[in-house]
Write a structure and sequence with these properties.
Layout (H helix, E strand, L loop, with lengths): L1 E5 L8 E3 L5 E3 L24 E4 L8 E4 L3 E7 L8 E5 L3 H7 L2 E2 L3 E3 L2
Parallel strand pairs: 1-7, 4-6
Antiparallel strand pairs: 1-8, 2-3, 4-7, 5-6, 5-9
């Protein structure tokens, strides 16, 4: 599976700032609406173990990613299609260090 990394910075996510300097969604049906930084598509706050995946994997699906550990699908992403995952990291530096990897991932269905 192709596994990439992200954090909650502007470089890794699709948010901008409005005239009040509040973070807002830049695309999709929520475009222009205020975004709570770090909140995932499932409504949970992103933290170590948060995985973004396509809708092929329902929210709550548990996965084991070698080199990262256990995680739960809690987020979606515009560029995530099919067998591709994004792993949440606390810092941009850590996300860059992970980079893009092709690795086997164990999936545990709900």
């Amino acid at each position: 599976m192709e596994v990439t990394a992200y954090c909650d910075c502007k470089k890794c996510t699709s948010w901008e700032r409005n005239w009040r300097l509040q973070p807002v969604f830049s695309t999709g049906s929520n475009k222009g609406k205020v975004k709570k930084i770090g909140q995932t598509a499932s409504g949970a706050m992103a933290r170590k173990g948060t995985i973004a995946a396509s809708s092929k994997f329902p929210f709550g699906t548990r996965m084991y990613v070698p080199g990262y550990g256990w995680g739960t699908v809690q987020d979606r992403g515009g560029a995530i299609k099919g067998n591709r995952l994004d792993l949440f990291f606390e810092t941009h530096k850590a996300a860059l260090q992970w980079g893009r990897q092709q690795i086997p991932v164990r999936i545990y269905e709900n």
